[in-house]
């Protein structure tokens, strides 16, 4: 990457303390804040935009890690909308993009959201000479991505799962995580398109089978969407309207109320376990599979189902 900044660049903006570990940058200050500063130690440059969702996750996480390193690395933030010429010169095609500079030149970088373990490894490589030991294993990335998904950050989780798949396309756990992340993000259509192209070995994987079941449940729930109030009225008039109770359970599931869905299915099972070829039990098992065997709702609901089976 050829840079055209000379030693005559303007000094950093007034009011910015020279010792700041994290600062806003511009074309005018780039030579001083990045090129010259990187002669003394690593500098990372975060190219971001106010409209970029992943940037709002990545930027603060990077800042936190940089401050934790107490001066071993510095960070400069560049708003690409304000610095379009600089972004074009550095060939920034999407945000977030992060470049690392050492000895006056770019030495590493990445594009897109990253899990914290990857960011730590990225910074550690800069300060330790790039040793491979700092790189987390693919299993470590999957574990962290699953936690991100559980915490509600499906977008960053999806990026982490995609990173694993880029290195190991046959990794079923990463594929299952990516598919589940897409479902959480509301992109069921992409999941539907991807499933038929997976290998037979992947389709046998329990986590991917669970994603397929979750997709099936979502499609079934779509038919009952928006009907909850009417279904509840039907049940108030006739508590043995089994079809209304089944449809209400699916409507609850589609609305993200899995616990309410389980309650209705268990009540249906209690009232008539044989109805419609054991529909209540079969839907419960599908829901358990979609949630996963270790999900707290699966664990508690299996106990309740067992109690009904042997009552």
Structure, described:
The radius of gyration is 26 Å and the shape is elongated. The protein folds into three domains: 22-134, Glutaredoxin; 138-198, Serine Threonine Protein Phosphatase 5, Tetratricopeptide repeat (Alpha Horseshoe); 223-309, Serine Threonine Protein Phosphatase 5, Tetratricopeptide repeat, CATH 1.25.40. Helix 6 packs antiparallel against helix 7, helix 7 (172-184) runs parallel beside helix 10 and helix 11 packs antiparallel against helix 12. 57% of the residues lie in helices and 9% in strands. A hairpin with a 2-residue loop joins strand 4 (97-102) and strand 5 (105-111). With 311 residues, it is of the alpha/beta class. The chain has a five-stranded mixed sheet with strand order 1-3-2-4-5, sandwiched between helices.
What are the salient characteristics of this protein?
single chain; 311 residues; alpha/beta; Glutaredoxin; Serine Threonine Protein Phosphatase 5, Tetratricopeptide repeat; 5-stranded mixed β-sheet; 15 helices; 5 strands; 57% helix; elongated; electron transport
